[in-house]
# Entry
Amino acid sequence: MKRLAGFIKKEFIHIFRDFRTLIFLFGIPAAQILIFGFAVRTDIKNAGIAVLDKAKDEISTGLISKLESSDFFILKENLMTDTRIDEVFKTGEIKAVFIFESEFGKTLINEGSANIQIIADGSEPNVANLVTSYSRAIISDYTMELNRAEETSAIPVEPEVKMYYNPNLESQYMFVPGVIAIVLLLTCAMMTSVTITREEEFGTMEVLLVSPLKPIQVILGKVMPYFLLSLIDVVFILFLSWLVFDIPIRGSLILLMLESMLYIMMGLSLGIMISTLARTMQQAMFTSLLGLMLPAIVLSGFVFPVESMPEIYNWLSSIIPPRWFVTIVKNIMVKGTDFSFVIKETFILLAMTLLFITLSTTRFKKRLE
# Structure
């Protein structure tokens, strides 16, 4: 028994001395609890809305204030004409537009009902459903308060709901852009994350040491085959999306392919950077798979709205590349936007790509030395 106790004690000492094992045992479960506990929300909060108030009377203004004062919505824009509805939706900041008919208050008091139209962004079906449900509840509460104040028995207002871009609220309009972003990131990063470590494990690093190639040339040489294969993968995924799910590409196909090429380069450079940091192929694959998959799914915004997350997770999601590419794909494929609506996301991905390439080159130089 003493021998067994001594052996167990030795194993405990090895475990506590290995920082990576402690991270795996305690760090990852803690991170998952925090991410799923705070970031994963099935409700909405701070969703951006726009209003087109044709009445501008006391009742319509009061209802707008009621919507704005709730924790669910933030009034971001007052529209003057309905011609700007498509434009505000394309910015991605507006989840719904509320349109009040002319003489809304007068019609409600005299006739017992009035027309409110809710146009929701159907490219995010879950968010659209929640926005319309919360809106109906707030409008119903307001009309009940109005009934009591006016001592009338007015019929509650029943909004007319319209879904923009996705009238039938088909879930594939939300999932396909997200799946494209995550699959490409994991494939590119995981495939290239083992390249440098594989050279060391197979004993071929010495060949690179004596070769006339510069570090940037070695990195480009390892990246280019995966870049071309990933580009074929993009074409295949888009073809399947159109063939199986009947998702059209409403925007420019050339623009979408150029953005995909940038995203692929970003994923490949991230994988190379992981490869220069990891010591073994196992470490590289573990880091690229586990370290990227969970944040990419939870914090990218394609399943759970980023606006509903606590502020710290909103900041964290900003450094997750899929968040920006999901927005790009959704804007081009579903909303049919041009480059002017994805400039911000494009430059963020470009900056990430340059950063990862620079870090990879620097790290690779050190490893060669």
Observations:
- Residues 215-245 form the longest helix (31 residues).
